[in-house]
């Protein structure tokens, strides 16, 4: 899952980047409103953490521009403004959730997980597909009750597929959502990781749909 942080305070930006990266997300960063607005309009983020008090373009204006352009990704407002009227302004502009500074990083992570979960139509933090279970809180993956050890790339791939169980996901969509802007998008990395993931899971849940991409579904639904 790919996240954008738009925060002008470099220390906070770095702390968020480190925490989200350690949680298994691919993270891009912006430090002002103009850069953040451009990235949000041109890159397919799964969620965005957006500060309200940004240089060049205010966070509210950035959010309004995204929504006016038809961008529907979940947005978590992060700001030092904690008056109820500021919260109302943020929600009316199109925010999905709100955290006031100073904040506990675990709360931000929990809210990001919740936004991603709700956007994909899941009610709990544990995602399942047949015998495969993935806990988005701990990053733990089990198959038939047995833990499976995955690399960070394999985990990102499985997490994205499990957030979108039952939908065909193209290779290009996987690349856009699992890797940052500097990733070599002409490589065959996705195919390699799909093969490794299939072997580690040991169950037939990842189907190849010829010419279209990959489909995650329970074995008995194939």
UniProtKB/TrEMBL annotation:
Provide the residue ranges listed under DNA-binding region in this record: 124-218
What Gene Ontology biological process does one annotation of this record name?
A: regulation of DNA-templated transcription
- Keyword Calcium carried by entry: no
This protein's record includes keyword Aminoacyl-tRNA synthetase: no
Pfam families for this protein: Response_reg, Trans_reg_C
- Residues with the modification 4-aspartylphosphate, per the entry, are 51
GO cellular component terms attached to this protein's record: cytosol; protein-DNA complex
Q: What PROSITE patterns does UniProt report for this protein, alphabetically?
A: OMPR_PHOB, RESPONSE_REGULATORY
A GO molecular function held by the record: phosphorelay response regulator activity
InterPro entries membership? CheY-like_superfamily, OmpR/PhoB-type_DNA-bd, Sig_transdc_resp-reg_C-effctor, Sig_transdc_resp-reg_receiver, WalR-like, WH-like_DNA-bd_sf
Q: Which UniProt keywords apply?
A: DNA-binding, Phosphoprotein, Transcription, Transcription regulation, Two-component regulatory system
In terms of PANTHER family, this protein maps to: REGULATOR OF RPOS, RESPONSE REGULATOR PROTEIN CARR
**Name under which the protein is recorded:** Winged helix family two component transcriptional regulator
């Amino acid at each position: 899952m790919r996240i954008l942080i738009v925060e002008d305070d470099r220390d906070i930006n770095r702390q968020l980047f480190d925490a989200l990266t350690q949680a298994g997300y691919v993270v891009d960063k912006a430090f002002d409103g103009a850069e953040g607005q451009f990235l949000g309009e041109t890159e397919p983020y799964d969620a965005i953490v957006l500060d309200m008090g940004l240089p060049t373009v205010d966070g509210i204006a950035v959010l309004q521009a995204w929504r006016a352009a038809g961008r529907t990704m979940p947005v978590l407002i992060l700001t030092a403004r904690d008056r109820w009227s500021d919260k109302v302004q943020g929600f009316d502009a199109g925010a999905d959730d709100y955290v006031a500074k100073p904040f506990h990083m675990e709360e931000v992570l929990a809210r990001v997980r919740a936004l991603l979960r709700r956007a994909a139509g899941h009610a709990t933090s544990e995602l399942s597909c047949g015998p495969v279970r993935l806990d988005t809180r701990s990053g733990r993956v089990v198959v038939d009750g047995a833990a499976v050890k995955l690399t960070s790339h394999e985990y990102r791939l499985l997490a994205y597929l499990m957030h979108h169980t039952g939908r065909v996901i193209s290779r290009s969509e996987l690349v856009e959502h699992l890797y940052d802007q500097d990733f070599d998008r002409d490589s065959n990395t996705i195919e390699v990781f799909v093969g490794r993931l299939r072997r580690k899971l040991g169950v037939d849940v990842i189907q190849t749909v010829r010419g279209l991409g990959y489909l995650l579904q329970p074995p008995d639904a194939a």
